[in-house]
Amino acid sequence: MKPSTLHTCSSLDELSTTVADAFCELAAESISQRGVFRVSLSGGSTPKRLYELLAKRDLDWDNIHWFWGDERNVPHDHDDSNYRMVREALLNHLPQDQVHAFPVPVDPSNPAETAKQYEAILRKEFAGQATPQWDLSLLGMGDDAHTASLFPGTLAINEQQRWFVENFVAKFDAYRYTLTAPAINSSRYKWFLIAGANKQVALDQVWNHDRQVNTIPSQLIESPIWYVSQEAMPA
């Protein structure tokens, strides 16, 4: 799975600025052509700087719709909440009457119902479509090669019918919520944001090993664009 499009950046700051510039261009194009820009957001530490930069840009916020590609099974005010991170880095800094955000309605006591409710939200927003048809999916990758909350050896990796599911991750002894691979791959653009030396081995696996999606879930993503910091590049 050699990268078809790869942008290498000297640092996380350069990566974040490069992606912010590309995000603004794609948003303007999507809104001009379709009247809306629908984005599936990534959690984790790498995209936080991007969100902080976007908060300072002059964008047509009223026509940007924010969704979550994955979430932790915690309340929205919890330190581990992806929604909280995006809210504090980005959404709180925008004109509140122009924020169109669709967070996962997490009920920690009922993961199955939470996933069902969010899938219903997505299917209403993308009514009549076989898959969500995002304009952009932002993706990260862990040092175990997971993306979104598609972790190695988990059931969600092989899901083909659902768009959004609860996914039990044994190493955390906890549920996560995640878009499925078909729902991510329906996006017009899929951008991986990868930073940190601890990603070198996983990135080498994704790019250079035979397809083994159960152990290398990031290989599930079709034709992504890669934004990678120099320290994360395989040796």
Automatic annotation (TrEMBL):
InterPro entries membership: 6-phosphogluconolactonase_DevB, 6PGL, Glc/Gal-6P_isomerase, NagB/RpiA_transferase-like
Catalytic reactions on record: 6-phospho-D-glucono-1,5-lactone + H2O = 6-phospho-D-gluconate + H(+)
Pfam families: Glucosamine_iso
CDD domains assigned to the protein according to its UniProt record, in alphabetical order: 6PGL (cd01400)
SUPFAM superfamilies in UniProt: NagB/RpiA/CoA transferase-like (SSF100950)
Biological pathway: Carbohydrate degradation; pentose phosphate pathway; D-ribulose 5-phosphate from D-glucose 6-phosphate (oxidative stage): step 2/3
Keywords for the protein's UniProt record, in alphabetical order: Hydrolase
EC top class, as a word: hydrolase
Entry similarity comment: Belongs to the glucosamine/galactosamine-6-phosphate isomerase family. 6-phosphogluconolactonase subfamily.
Function statement: Hydrolysis of 6-phosphogluconolactone to 6-phosphogluconate.
Protein name: 6-phosphogluconolactonase
